[in-house]
Amino acid sequence: MEKIKETLDYINSKTNGFKPEIAVILGSGLGSFCDNLKGCNIPYDDIPHFASSNVKGHKGELLFCKINNKDCVIMQGRFHFYEGHSMQEATYPIKIFKQLGVKNLIITNAAGGVNKNFNVGDIVLILDHINFMGTNPLIGKNDDSLGERFPDMSNCYDKELINLAKKCAKNLNMDLKEGVYLATTGPSYETAAEIRAYRVLGADVVGMSSVPEAIVANWLKIKTTTLSLVTNFATGVSDTKLSHQEVIETGKTQGQKLSGLIKEIIKNI
Ligand code: HPA
Fold first, then answer.
1. Distance from CA of residue 113 to its chain's centroid?
2. pTM for the full model?
3. Assuming Cys at both sites, which of 72, 108, 150, 224 could form a disulfide with 217, CB separation 3.0 to 4.6 Å?
4. 207: CA distance to ligand 1 center in Å?
């Protein structure tokens, strides 16, 4: 808890004790969400006990700001397990959000489309996940003051937020797909055989993030919803080779739609 206090003290000294009620995590190439937002930016490198994020397409800052009159904190880029961060390091910001007073978390990510009915550019509301990372961020001594040893996962993707997201998409006249997110560690993309196997298991999209954050948020009783932007067909779904460049480019061109939906959700929370 001493570590958490040091992080909080630093953040509070920069934000004058700003108390966000909503947190947003932005995935690869989705940084344009922040283009017209003004507030207090804090680089991860300056925050005690935060890891530093070096992935192309991620900015590496927290932004504290008002969106539609709600107090928010935006994570511009996340810490991935494949970067070599431990699961604890990757999910540390969620523990900080809880202490700052965050009640709702909106997670976004770039994902590969496993479901053959999905297209590049589709936005998928995540109804549930399959943790295929082979580990879990809650492994280790449990801090009972923060959450239970064996947290229930039946509402990890909060049903009220799911319904709200659907309503908001309708308000915006936007097509919103629904599905299951399967998380791998990466960093290699999947083989075609793996994608076929994941489809049989029930996956609709695949990615290398989000599940650790969702597990920790659920443990901390932060209401969570996840939105994936399909940036590419998963391996074998089409003939094209996968590249991180394609993921970032699709994020940039299609991210606008997702930004609009997130702002509508924030407005209606
Ligand atoms: N696989 C895994 N992670 C991803 C993909 C993918 O196809 N696209 C974006 N992130």
1. 17
2. 0.96
3. 224
4. 5
